Amino acid sequence: MFKIFLMSTTESLSKSLDLTTTYLPIVMMIVVALIVAFGMLALSIFAGPKYPSKAKEYPFECGWLLDSKDTKRKHSIKFYMVAIMFLIFDLEIVFMYPWAITFRQIGLVSLVEMFIFLSILVVGYIYVWKKGILEWD
Amino acid sequence: MVELIIWTIIKILFILFFVTLPLAGVLTVVDRRESSMIQDRIGPNRANLSGDVWDLSKRWRFLGLLHLLADGIKMIFKEDYSIKSGNRWIHTFAPILAFFPGLVILSIIPFGGNVTVFGSSTNLQIASFDSGMLLAFAFSSIAVYGITLAGWSSNNKFSLLGGVRATSQMLSYEVVLGLTLMGIFMIYGTLELNTIVQGQQSLKVDGTPDLLFGFLPKWGIFLQPFAMLLYVAAATAETKRAPFDVPEAESELVSGFFTEYGSMKMGMFLFAEYAEVVIFSMIFTTLFLGGYHVPYLYDSGFILPFGWGSLSINPTLVGFIQMLTFLLKVIIVAWGHLVIRWTLPRFRYDQVLRLGWKMLLPLALANIIITAIVLSFI
Amino acid sequence: MIDNISTIHFLKEMLYLIPLLILVFSSMIILLVDVFAESSNKRYLAPLTSLFLIFSAISIFWLYKYIPKSGVKILYNMVYVDHFSLVISAMLIIAAIITVWISSDYLERYGIAIGEFYSLLLISLTGMILMVSTTNLFTMFVALELFSIPIYVLAGFFRVYGKSIESSIKYFISGSVASAIMLYGIALFYGVFGTVEFSEIERHIFNHYDSVAQIAKTEPLLILGTLLIMAGFLFKTAMIPFHMWTPDIYEGAPTTVTGFMGFAVKATSFAAFFRVVVSIFNTPSLVYSENGTISPSSWINVIYVLIIITLIVSNLIAMSQRNVKRMLAYSSISHAAYLMIAILTFSLSKTKDSYGSLLFYLLTYLFASIGAFAVLSIFEKNGSNSVTLENLNGASKRSPFLVASMLIFIFSMAGVPPFGGFFGKFYLLKSAFVDGSLSTLVLIAVITSVIGAFYYLRVLVFMFMKDVESDENIETLNVPFLGKLAIALSAIAVVYLGVFPNSLIQFMGETISNFFIK
To answer: Is the separation of the CB atoms in B65 and B22 below 8 Å?
Structure first.
C-alpha cells in the first residue's frame, strides 16, 4: 500500500526533527497563552460572588426591546458582500506572498505575471466599485 | 532539545509576563491619564496606598499605577453572571478566542539579537520559521471569531450589531493589512521577522555598513514610507480603537459586542485591546523601525557613516542594548498610538469601510506595483 | 536583474495560449465595457463578444498549422496544446458564437442585464478550453471548476423565475459534490504515485503492475481512484445513475444557456475523459486480467453496463415528457451514451476506423442541439422560460423558417439519413460493430434509437399537424437577424455534414491518430 508514498515519507523522516524544533516553541506559546486566558476566566468565575436574580437574565438593553428572539434576524446585504469581497481579496493576497518573497530572484518574468494577475484583480475591483458594492449609504 | 525547551520557556515568560502583559496593564492607566491631560482634566488620581483621599501631599500614588491594581481587583471580584437567553457556552469562551491569539503572535517577534548566557547562545525570538508573518495574520484572524461569537451569543441587538460591524471592519482591514506589508516582504525577500530585522541594518560582504544614500539605515520606514502610513491606518482599524472604534461605539451601541459581559470576561476584551496595541507596536517596530537595532550599532560595535570612525563594544553588551532599544521603541510607538486615539474623532461606520475599500486598498495595490517596478529596474 | 532568456521563453509559451488569453482578456473587457457603457449601448455587447470569439477562433486555426503534430507541453507541463485540443476548442468556440448570437435578442426580451452574461460565458469557455488542453490532473480539476462555476451562475441568470434559481442551486450543489468526488479520486492517484501528470502515472502503472487482479490485491485504492475520477466525469456527461440533475437544470436554465451547456459541458467532459482514457485508463494492466481477457473488475465493464442502462432508460423517460426542454434533456442523456460507446470502442478495438467517430458525432451534435435550443428560445412564451409541446401548436404557420430548421435539427438528432446525425451514429456504431465484443451494445443502441425517433418526431407532429385553439398565438414570430443567422448556419452545417461527411471524418481520424505520435 502506498509504496511510492512511503518512500517519500522515509526521506522526510530525517527532516521531522527539524520540524519539531521549529514548531515546538509555537505550540508551547499557544499552550501558555491558553493557560493565561483560561486562568483569567477561572479567576472571575471562582472569585466573584453569586447573587442570581431574575432581572440579570434579560438582555441589557435599557429596558426596551426585551424580545430576545428578535436578534437572529437578517442583516443588511452589505455585510455579506464584505464577507465575499474579503474571501476574494484575501485569496489573491495569499497567492501574492510566495511571489513577493521570491520576487528579487525571479525578476522580470514574475513582474509581468503578477501584472496580469493584478490586472484581473483590478478589473474585478473596478466592476465591484461601479456596481455599488462599496457604497454604504 | 532540552536547551531549546528551557530557552523557550525563559523567552515566553520574559516576553509575556515581563513585557507584554505589564506593558498592556500600564497602558490602560496611561490611556486614562493621557486622555485627561489632552482633555484638560485631572483624570484618575484617587487610588493610593496611604488611604488619605483628601490631602494631596499624603497620597502615595506611584504615578497612578495603583489604578491598574485597583481595576484588576475590581474586575476579578465582580459577580460573573452568565446570560440565560443566549448561547452560554459560546458566550463564556468567546473572550478566550478574542484574547489568546494576540499573545501567540508574540512568538515570532524578535525582541533582541543573539545573546550568549552561560555559554549557551540563542536568538531572542521564540520561534523562527519561514512563514513568520503569515502566522501573525492567521492568528489575528482567529481573534475575529472571538468578537463575532461574543456579539452573536449575547442575544442582544447591540451586541450583535457590534459583532457584525467588528467582523466586517476587521475583515476589510485584514485585506489592506496584508497588501501594505507586501512591499516590505518584496524588499527583504522573506516573511521571517528576524531576517527582516537583520536585513534592515546589516554589513556588506566587505564589512562596511549597508546604508541608504551613505547614511540612512535601510529601515522599512525609509524604504516604504508610504506603506508605513497605510499600515498604521490599517492596523489601528484592526485593533478596533478610535478613530475606528465603531464596533463598540459607546454613544451608539452601549458598548458593542461586549455589552452583555461583566467581570473578568469583559476585562479580557478590554485587556486584549491593550495587548493588541502592544503587539501592533512590536510588529511596527520590527518591520519599519529596524527592530532591535540602534542606528549604526552592529554586532561588533558602532560603525559611523562617512568614515567618522568606529567604536567596538562587547557583543554581550550589544545584545542587551539591542533588547532595551527594542522595548524603548515599542513604548514610544504605543504612546504614539494612544495619542492617535485621543486626538482624532470617530469615523462613521460607512466612512470606515469606504476608507478601507476605496482608499487604502487601491493605494496599497499601487504601492505594490511601484515597489515591484522600482525593484526590478535598480 | 532582467533575465532575457527566461523572458523570451515565457513569451514563447504565451504564444500557445493566445486563444485562451484572448478569451480571458475579452471577458474582462466586456465586464468593464458593460459597467461603463450607457444602457442604450449595451446591445453592441453581443457583436463585440462574437468579434472576440472570432479572433480567438482565428488564432486557433493559426495555431493548428503552427504546432507540431505531437503537440506542445508548456508552463511546466501544466498545459498541453495539440491538434485534438484545438479541434475541440474550435467546436466550443463555434457553440459560444451561436449562443451569443441567439442570446442577444433573447436576453433583451427578458430585460436581463447583459454584460455579465457574455463575460461569464467567455470565462466558462476559457475553463473548457483549458480542460481539454491539459494532461495534468490538477490543471484539469481547476479547469473543471473554472468552467462549472460560471455555468452555475448562468443557469440562475433569470433571477426572477423560481425555476431558474432552483436549477442554479441544484446544479451548484450536485456539481460541487461531483467535483469533490473527482478530486478525491485525483488525490488517491496522487497519493499512490506522487504525481498528477498523465504520462508519469501511465508509466508507473505500466512498470509496477501486470493486471487488474494484481492491482486490486496490492493497491486497491488505485481501483477506487479510477472509479471516483470516472464518477466525476459520468456526472458531467450525465450518464444514467448520475443524470438526475439534467432535466431540472435543462428546464430551469435560460434556454440559450441550456443549449450552450447541453453541448459544451458534454463535449468538454468527453474530450477530457477521452484524454484520461487514452493516457491512463487504457493502460493494459487497468483493463485486462492475467490471461489477456477483459477483467471482470475493470472500469470497462462499469461503462458497458451504464451505457446499456442509459440507452434504455433515457429513451423511455423521454417519451413521456410534455416539456420540450426536459425531453431534449433526456435526449442529451441518450446522446451521452452514444458518445460513451465511441470511447469504449476506441479503448477496446484500436482500429483506425473508430478514431474519428467521437469527434464527428460531437460535431453533428453541436449544430443539432444548439440549433434546436435556439429555435425553442424563440418559441418560448414570455415569462415562462419553458416550452411545452402545446406551445408549438401551429408553429408551421407562425414561422416556416424556424419550423424548417427545427425539422432538420430533429431529424439529425433522431438519425434520419440525409442529415449529419445519421452519419455520426452510423460511423460510431459501425466501428463498434466491427469489433465483435460490442455487438450486443450496438444492437441495443439501434433499437433504442428507433424508440427515440418516436419522441423526436412527436415534436414535429405538434408543429405541423396541430392547430392552435385560440387566436392569440397565431401572430407570426419575427426572428431577429443574428438569431436567424445562427439558426440558418447551424441548419446548413447539419445538412453539409450529412451530405459530405467523408472529408471531415477523415480529418477527425487524423486528429485522434496524433495521440500515438511519441
So the answer is: no
